[in-house]
Amino acid sequence: MALRLDGSAKETLERGRNRLVMAGVIFAFCFVVLAGRLVGLAISGIGDEDVMASEADSVPPVAISESKRAEIRDRNGVLLATTLTTASLFAEPKNVINPKELAAKLTTVLDDMSEAAILSKLASARNFVWLKRNLTPTQQYQVNALGIPGLHFREEEKRFYPMGALVSHAMGFTDVDNQGIAGVEKYFDAQLSGSKEKSAQDLTLSLDVRIQHALRDELSRHMSIFRAIGAAGMVMDVKTGEILGMVSLPDFDPNRPGDFSGDAKFNRISLGVYEMGSTFKTFTTAMALDMGAVELQGGYDATEPIRKAGFRIRDDHPKKRWLSVPEIYMYSSNIGAAKMADDVGPKNHKAFLAKLGLLDKPSLEIPEVGAPILPPRWNSLETMTISFGHGLSVSPLQLSTGIAAIVNGGNYINPTMIRRNEEKMTPVRQVISAKTSDVMRRLMRLVVEKGTGGKAAATGYLVGGKTGTAEKAVGGRYKRDALISSFVSAFPMNDPRYVVFAMLDEPKGNAQTHGFRSAGWTAAPIIGRLISRIGPILAIEPVEEESEAVQKAMFIPINSREKKLASF
Amino acid sequence: MKLNLTIISLVLVAAVSFGLYQLSYEVQGLEKNLKSLNQNISENKETIRILKAEWTYQNRPDVLQSLASKYLPLLLIAPYQVASVGEVPYPQIDPEQYTVPIPRHNPRRDYTPATPLPRGPVQLATFTHTGGVQ
């Protein structure tokens, strides 16, 4: 059989067979590799499952709704802001068979849309028209139930504020793309919206909706009683600096911020700066006592108004006699306060107010924070006017923070909108001594007990405070008929826990106040009502005000030189 | 002999491939199941979000206040109405109390609710993409 070939022919055949074997080996190897891979795939899958599984496991429970903007809650966990997936209704006009019928049917479900409006939208030449954004689930269901072709839904995210106007200014609002553009929504925008590296984190504010509501309720009621153009109020913890309530009226609904004017969005508490009037006498008195410029037993002659550089400083409630320090404070004597501040001197006065944080822009976790307006010069005359709250404009936030420092034992604490832990608190700086702070508490109590702030009394809660009535400065002049009446208070005065501030913008007197519109008649009643409302919520135990122990704790010698037998 | 070997190997191949594909299909089915479960969870989460928002909205303080003033005889708490637990007097011990016979067995032993409780795990309401609540 075998052919015997010789020479070149045999050689060629040999080579050919070798090549064939080589090719066969290579192919066989490839097929073995393929087969192996095939078996491997059939057994273990593509090999990505492990990665997919670990991705699904690493992000907490199920990684689906975490891309949403995080929630904001109050100190007790009540929801203040959340993000909901809502359906938005759009139409494809080309696919709508009978626009008239559609419009008629749709108006039965969406009652805020008119038939004509729907028809005009459907008449457009585009093949995509929004009919209504952000439907409620019920509306969506009803529209679906109509079963009209050419109508479709698209899912959108909408920021929702269940409390509406209640927490408007502190909360702020977001734009259509869910970006915070005011309030804590803006300040904590990065935390709330999250990023690729960090997931979105919920925010717990220091606010308490119950207190916020009581504050807003009382302010809006008194605002309408006294026909004021605006009102503002806040409640602050003196030990932690937490703001429990912050209301500025008129306010707005953050669910639809576009419908409100700029005035409604103006935060009178933190952004508005005002000449606060007599409430500043608290700082003047504390400063004079702390620096030893005058003793508690000392006093000043307030018989004659002070004339200085063409100005006349006079009293609103003139006593025309020598007044002791407690009397100056409780009768709110401008002359006495001016003389007291003059004894301290402009330099020390300025340094003291700076320590109380009244001369710098305060720090708070919202972007709407106003800087105080300082006088261009600060000499003897300015010191005198600032001593009773004219010539220096500060925000109510700064005033309340300063008062908190005066009553809490002299520690200045930065205000905050975020819930704080009392144990971790570190006071920023000591402003006055604990002894002076104790005297100031008694003086503030005296104002409510016997002085100008009698209407701020809330039985059992030992309210102490100071009235402040200031004429509004408009265009460099004081307007006689426009007042800012405010009242700053703290309670309970034997161990102050909360500072409460209320302010009315341009209140008008009525028959009940005998035509008076000063703070003692207009702003003080708000404090009285408010504290008896929020006292139980804040778990403050009422005390027997007439009891000997309380009277002793709140005792302060007045040292009046008033003739006991009036000359009648 | 050679024929036997061939038959055995063919049967083996058939058996192994059948087993393999069975496993593969099972895995696919489970994965599908997991996906639908995950979607269900996310839908339920969304529903919870909506219900929470609704709950908070219905419990706004001003709504509660108007309801309370309409239906409840509650006014502001006066200071004399507040007391600590220590001030609450101990209740008077009534000797009659000890004559009440102790029941022989649990009084609710034979109790059956009028409408029977649903069997199986509790189903959450589900907000579907087609709208409405199931």
Explain the overall architecture.
Chain A has helices spanning 7-44, 49-58, 99-109, 115-122, 137-146, 168-171, 183-187, 189-193, 209-225, 262-265, 281-291, 325-330, 334-344, 346-355, 380-387, 396-407, 434-450, 519-522, 524-537, 548-553; strands spanning 72-73, 79-91, 129-135, 151-160, 203-204, 230-237, 243-249, 274-275, 299-301, 306-308, 311-313, 322-324, 393-394, 411-412, 429-430, 464-474, 477-491, 498-505. Helices cover 37% and strands 18% of the residues of chain A. In chain A, a hairpin with a 5-residue loop joins β1 (72-73) and β2 (79-91). Chain A is built from 20 helices and 18 strands. Chain B is built from two helices and no strands. Chain B has helices at 2-58, 61-71. The longest helix of chain B is centred in the N-terminal third of the chain and has 57 residues, at 2-58. The model of chain B has no long low-confidence stretch (mean pLDDT 82). Classes of the chains: A alpha+beta (568), B mainly alpha (134). The interface between A and B is large, with 43 and 32 residues. Chain A: Residues 66-199 form the Penicillin-binding protein dimerisation domain. Chain A: Residues 233-518 form the Penicillin-binding protein transpeptidase domain.
Indicate the topology:
The complex is a heterodimer of chains A (568) and B (134).
Chain A: H1 7-44, H2 49-58, E1 72-73, E2 79-91, H3 99-109, H4 115-122, E3 129-135, H5 137-146, E4 151-160, H6 168-171, H7 183-187, H8 189-193, E5 203-204, H9 209-225, E6 230-237, E7 243-249, H10 262-265, E8 274-275, H11 281-291, E9 299-301, E10 306-308, E11 311-313, E12 322-324, H12 325-330, H13 334-344, H14 346-355, H15 380-387, E13 393-394, H16 396-407, E14 411-412, E15 429-430, H17 434-450, E16 464-474, E17 477-491, E18 498-505, H18 519-522, H19 524-537, H20 548-553
Parallel strand pairs in A: 1-5
Antiparallel strand pairs in A: 1-2, 2-3, 2-4, 6-7, 6-18, 8-13, 9-12, 10-11, 14-15, 16-17, 17-18
Chain B: H1 2-58, H2 61-71
